[in-house]
């Protein structure tokens, strides 16, 4: 029964945490039994079971409970299979979503060598606009996961494609993540490539795209500032923040005390 398999998936994370705490007694139980179950349920015929399996997988990754070897040898291969060009549409959309969400939880080498080539292919998926939409919405996170060199060499050309996509929702998603993409590139790429690209979005024929671009204008401009002097930095959640200057911090300790 699908409901039984769904309930089972919901119990996997707490069981995994228990086994991790009791590792001397159960040294291999998690890797031998639970990981294969989670991986298998990613391809379950029932949509609800697959969703529960995906949520369980992400929790295990967040808690750092899956070994790097199991991620590369068991998890990534099944995601690459599900996101292949000839894969079922529903499975492909789900696989792309997982790849984008798990990218920030894996090592840079794993993302770059195992997942990045497939992500680049999916950005150009001509069959499903939903796949391209997921790629566009998570583009900044992927750039952050692989770093500047891979971003400029492999991802920026794909970003240009998505920014000129025929579906306006794609262009809007690109405008919304523009600051995160820009933050990962060098000042020269920002100036010579991304600035003209941003102008095209801010001049887009669709008002929703233009509105999203105008909302991203300030954050995009902030990426040109020197973080050490401007105090601007990107938090882990991708939002822009301002670090108080040393002068401001010192001033808090130098307020005159009127009672003295």
> How much of the polypeptide forms β-strand, as a percent range?
under 5%
How many alpha or pi helices? Answer: 15
Q: Give the low-pLDDT segments.
A: 246-260
What summary fits the major beta sheet? 2 strands, antiparallel
> What's the number of extended β-strand segments?
2
SSE sequence, one letter per element: HHHHHHHHHHHHHHEEH
Radius of gyration: 22 Å
Give the integer mean of the pLDDT values: 86
Largest sheet: spatial strand order? 1-2
Shape, principal axes of CA atoms: elongated
* Helix content bin: over 70%
Q: In whole angstroms, how far apart are the ends?
A: 76 Å
Class by alpha and beta content: mainly alpha
Keywords: Repeat
Pfam family, one: HEAT
Protein name: PP4R1 phosphatase
InterPro entries: ARM-like (IPR011989), ARM-type_fold (IPR016024), HEAT (IPR000357), HEAT_type_2 (IPR021133), PP2A_Regulatory_Subunit_A (IPR051023)
List keywords for this structure.
protein phosphatase regulator activity, disordered C terminus, mainly alpha, about 260 residues, elongated, 2 strands, HEAT
Question: What does it look like?
Answer:
Keywords: Repeat. Pfam families: HEAT. GO terms for molecular function: protein phosphatase regulator activity. One of its GO terms (cellular component) is cytoplasm. This is PP4R1 phosphatase. The structure is a single chain. This protein is mainly α and 260 residues long. It is 72% helix and 2% strand. The protein contains 15 helices and two strands. The protein has helices at residues 2-21, 29-41, 47-62, 68-82, 89-102, 108-123, 129-137, 139-146, 148-163, 168-176, 178-184, 187-202, 207-222, 227-230, 246-252, and strands at residues 232-234, 240-242. The protein has a two-stranded antiparallel sheet with strand order 1-2. A hairpin with a 5-residue loop joins strand 1 and strand 2 (240-242). The longest helix has 20 residues, at 2-21. The N and C termini lie far apart (76 Å).
């Amino acid at each position: 029964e699908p409901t039984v398999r769904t309930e089972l998936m919901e119990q996997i994370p707490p069981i995994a945490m228990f086994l991790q705490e009791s590792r001397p007694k159960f040294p291999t139980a998690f890797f031998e039994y639970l990981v294969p179950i989670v991986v298998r349920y990613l391809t379950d015929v029932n949509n609800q079971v697959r969703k529960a399996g995906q949520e369980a997988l992400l929790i295990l990754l967040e808690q750092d409970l899956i070994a790097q070897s199991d991620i590369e040898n068991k998890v990534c291969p099944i995601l690459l299979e599900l996101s292949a060009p000839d894969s079922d549409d529903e499975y492909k959309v789900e696989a792309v979503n997982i790849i984008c969400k798990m990218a920030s939880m894996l090592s840079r080498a794993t993302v770059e060598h195992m997942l990045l080539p497939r992500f680049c292919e999916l950005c150009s998926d001509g069959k499903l606009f939903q796949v391209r939409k997921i790629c566009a919405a998570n583009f900044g996170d992927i750039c952050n996961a692989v770093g500047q060199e891979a971003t400029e060499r492999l991802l920026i050309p794909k970003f240009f494609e998505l920014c000129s996509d025929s579906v306006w929702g794609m262009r809007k998603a690109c405008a919304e993540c523009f600051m995160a993409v820009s933050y990962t590139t060098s000042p020269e790429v920002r100036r010579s490539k991304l600035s003209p690209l941003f102008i095209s979005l801010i001049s887009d024929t669709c008002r929703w795209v233009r509105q999203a671009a105008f909302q991203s204008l300030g954050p995009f401009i902030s990426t040109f500032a020197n973080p050490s002097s401007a105090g601007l930095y990107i938090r882990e959640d991708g939002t822009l923040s301002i670090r108080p200057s040393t002068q401001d911090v010192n001033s808090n300790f130098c307020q005159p005390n009127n009672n003295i």
